[in-house]
Specification:
Number of helices: 9
CATH superfamily of the largest domain: Trigger factor ribosome-binding domain
Structural class: alpha+beta
CATH class of the largest domain: Alpha Beta
Order of helices and strands: EEHHHEHEEHEEEHEEHHEH
Largest sheet: 5 strands, antiparallel
Strand content: 15-25%
Number of strands: 11
Radius of gyration: 37 Å
Shape: elongated
Distance between the termini: 49 Å
CATH architecture of the largest domain: 2-Layer Sandwich
Amino acid sequence: MKVSHETLPGSKVRFDIEVEGERSQKIHDATLQRLLKTIQVPGFRKGKAPRQLLMQYVGGETVRAEVFEKLIEEVLREVRTQHETLKPLGQFRLGQEGDDLFAGFRVGEILTFAAEIDVEPTVEVADYVGMTVTVEPVQPDPEAPGRMLAEFQRRRAPLVPVEGRPAASGDVVTIDYVLRQPDGQPVADWEDETGVQLDLLPESFLPEIVAGIEGMNPGEIKEIPAHLTDSEDGTAEPEPVVATVTLQSIKVRELPSLDDDFARSISQKETMAELQAYLDEREANAAAEETEERIQTAIVNALVERTHCEVPQTLLQQELEFLLQRNCRNFRSQWGKK
């Protein structure tokens, strides 16, 4: 077998291949031998029919097509193995239509054809010596440790019943509610709920309903107009609804003191001062790490701008398939579909 190759634009390589006739003849003989053992020609025991009769029974073109396919597959596999240093990607593409190539194929004769394959691209980076990038450093958020401690406070706070006053912002209430359209019809995808525990904060439920619950007393029933937005980005036209809310109870979180006992209960620090110092240091380290990531990203982006690389179609297709599969996995994970 004779093989030569040349590099083409678009990170491709073309192979010109010449296969000796003996190779196809060998595959042809092996194919007939296999058929003799597996196919029984009428009037003959299996494996005893003359080859000429077997060819007539099976069909000469069928045998020739099988030999052709095996020859091309075997040759291309060998070419790929011999040229692994080129780092081939994907599958070979014949230089002419397979039917046209098959039409000129004769068992026992020389076969000449061309095939192309994508290869890993060569990345050419321009001179980067003296390259500079500008990055805005990330400043530590001085409020972040306090917010974290406040969240731990909220999680550890026991709920204490409230008496003698109506519901107020920040309370934890237990409600029943029925959601209906203004004409009394049910609202799609919403069910009647009982015993729902709710923080009276705008972000915890529909803001209009949260605001409407404020000022209610236990046992009170109230109709509260509200609006639903179907789209996640809030661009759809809001749908008017009416919530019938029954307030069952009001409670408040009794926040624990931010003292040494509290610090020990949520961490391995012995004092609140040690915990505060640890949280401050962690916030500073996080800001420094994010700054470093920005620097690395800026350097990579600057190098990419100075880089020339012809991306082959195979890599683009692989990336497209990867993104499609990832989105499908995310969709199944989100919606519970298999």
